[in-house]
Each structure stands twice: as structure tokens, then as C-alpha cells.
Amino acid sequence: MRLPLVLFVALVGCQQPALSQQTDGPITVEAPLAQGAGALERLDGEIGTSRRTAITRAVEAASPAVVSVNVIEVRNYVRRATPIEEFFYGRRIPDRVFQQEVQAIGSGFVISDDGYIVTNDHVAGAATKITIAFPDGSQMPATLVGSDPETDIALLKVEPERPLPYLAFEEQGDAVVGEWAIALGNPFGLFEAAEPTVTVGVVSAVGRDFPAQQGRIFRDMIQTDAAINSGNSGGPLVNALGRVIGVNTVIYSRSGGSVGLGFSVPAWRVRQVVAELRESGAVDRSFYTGLSIRPVSPRLAQQLGLGQARGLVVTSIESDSPAERAGLLPRDVIVSIQDEAVTSNEDVRDRLVDSRAGDAVRLGVVRRGQTLTVDLTLGEAR
């Protein structure tokens, strides 16, 4: 699209025929102003229109709803005595625990005109005081409605005097690999109470999984090369329509800065978590199966006739439990949940992060050398 525009500008700006570089005579160029103010205004208008792309329109629509999240939280610190101190005291000095208020900043975005705001749990989940700074320079105190450490999502609430601009989640399917990805937020807390910083890339991949870290379960993450830095946490990742496709959460970096490997919690998971936080202030993942399991060791694998140590063996099943009703038996080996391999209790937790009591879960089971599929309906926690 750029080549015709460049040619058009060049032709409008010159009234003389093109001359060879070997021409001896002087070359004169008539400025566009000589054609009159009307032509110049038309040219400016056409250039200005061409500068407005799907990205600029998405940014214009999304920016008013992106906020800075300023928090104060109390953290515990442990001070250990040095060997020199213990030498002078002549005895071992116990560790001392003290508390300190710490100020931090992240990003977030408004999801309703009455003031609900989404951010990360690691931004505001432990806050004792929260202040929201809006792009127009105004600030409001916020309360923590609820937080979910497992998915790293938190829901805040402000009480605005008038309806706020807000963002909508993309509901027409998952993020598409290769589509535009626009990250908005406040990197490093540099531009509080100002228009958000905008970085642009593409959706590099979807469905990225990471091992659980400090109780957080990062699964089905969206990968993007849009620059995401510290302070962007909790800000939105939007598509070219200005709809939220993810919440910017973590980066992979050896330097601490963006290297083009940013990851966002997908919108479909955020919607589910936010709905539960809004309703009850927490996410209830408790359920009942009635079965006991443990990892298959190499020795146990030989006893069960397995070619390799894999999966989780069922050691016992309670009577009249969901597991019994599903047809599971002791010595069954569960090798997958929802078609994903499992080898530990941690794997089970990760695979079931989006499941709730009443949901049916598909299990891959090996029984006496035969592979079968068992549908287990999770029961209410007792």
C-alpha cells in the first residue's frame, strides 16, 4: 500500500518533466503550495488518513480504559545474624522477622463502566492499599474484590462518579497465531496517570505451558513478541479490533527486559476467573473423586506389566464415590487427563486448574495392559 502513496506524493509535488542526471540545464521544482492551499490541504488529508491503521484505531479505542495500579503491601523479611555478630555475642542469635511496607506498581484495565478492573494477582493480591491512576490524570482508591493466585488474576473495584470507558473481551474464538497483538500498560511505572505505552507484535504462539511456579499455574498461555516489561503486568493484550485477547503476565528474560518472549493469560480463562471472583470473591477448585493415587515407580511398573514407569496408579477407591461410579478399579493406571500425560500429583492439579465440581473429566487408563478411556464426573467436596 505504500508504493502508490509515495508515487502520488512525488507527482503532486513536481510540475516539471523528469530530467536525466546528465542534463546541463537547471532543474526547477514547483512546491505544492504553488498549486494553492486547497491542494495542500487535500494532500495532508490523504496522508493523515493513510496513517490511521487498524492498529491506531484499536489503540485509540483501548487506551482510555488502561490504568496504572499503585499498591502498598506489607512484606515479611528475615534478618539472619552474621558470624561476626554471633562471635561477639558468644552464642547463636535467632533469626529476626520484621515487616516493611513496600510500594509497587503494575497495570490493569477497566472491564465495566461501573468500575471493575482486572490486573494480576502478583500486582495487587497482597495489597493493603490500592490506588488507580487513569489516563486523564485522575486517581481513585480501589478495593480488592478477589484474587486467584493459581491463574495470577485479580479483580479490583473503584467507585466512579460517572461511567468509565471499558474494554471487552474477545469472545469469537481463541487468539490466532500471526494476528496483531497490541500490549498496553505502564512499563517500569514511568508514566503514571498518563496515556499507556503501546507496543505491537503478533501472537507468536498459543497453548504455551510452564511448570508451576510459587503456586501459579501458567497453562495455555499466549506468547507474543510485543515488548512487555516490568510494570506491564496486568495490562491488556488486545487484537486489531481493540478486544482483549489476554492479560500480560510474565516474560522470559535473562536481562530483566523484554527480549520478545512475553506471555499472557488467555481471555477465555480470565473471563471464567473474573466471573467467579465477582460472584464470590474467590475461585473454588475443591472437588471430590473418592480415589487415592500415587506415581508409578519403576518397580511398580514391572509388577503392573508396564513397559515403563509412567502415570499414577489407583491405590484405593471409596464406595459410592464418583470414581466408583465411573468404573475405575484399584491398580488402574491413569496415564492422561484431558488427553495430556500425567506423572505426578502436581500434574493432576495443573490439568484440572479449569475444572470445577460437576465437570466431566476424561481419563486415559491402562488396565491389565489394555488402554481405555474413562469419563469421571467431579463431585462436590465433602
Describe this structure in words.
By secondary structure, this protein is of the alpha+beta class. Among the domains are: 67-157, Thrombin, subunit H, CATH 2.40.10.10; 291-377, Roll (Pdz3 Domain). Helix content is 20%, strand content 33%. It is built from nine helices and 18 strands. The strands form three sheets. It has a six-stranded antiparallel barrel with strand order 1-2-3-6-5-4. The N and C termini lie far apart (63 Å).
What is the structure about, briefly put?
The protein has 382 residues and is an alpha+beta fold. The protein is 20% helix and 33% strand. The chain has 9 helices and 18 strands.
Low-pLDDT parts are: 1-34
Q: What value does the Rg take, in angstroms?
A: 29 Å
Instruction: Encode the helix/strand succession as letters.
Output: HHHEHEEHEEEEEEEEEHEHEHEEHEE
Helix content: 10-25%
Q: What is the CATH topology classification name of the domain at 67-157?
A: Thrombin, subunit H
Distance between the termini: 63 Å
Shape: globular
Q: How many E strands?
A: 18
CATH architecture field of the domain at 67-157: Beta Barrel
- Return the CATH class of the domain at 67-157: Mainly Beta
Q: Main beta sheet: strand number and arrangement? A: 6 strands, antiparallel, barrel
The CATH superfamily of the domain at 67-157 turns out to be Trypsin-like serine proteases
Class of secondary structure makeup? alpha+beta
The percent range for strand residues is 25-35%
Question: Please, how many helices?
Answer: 9
- Average per-residue pLDDT, rounded, comes to 84
Largest beta sheet: what is the strand line-up? 1-2-3-6-5-4
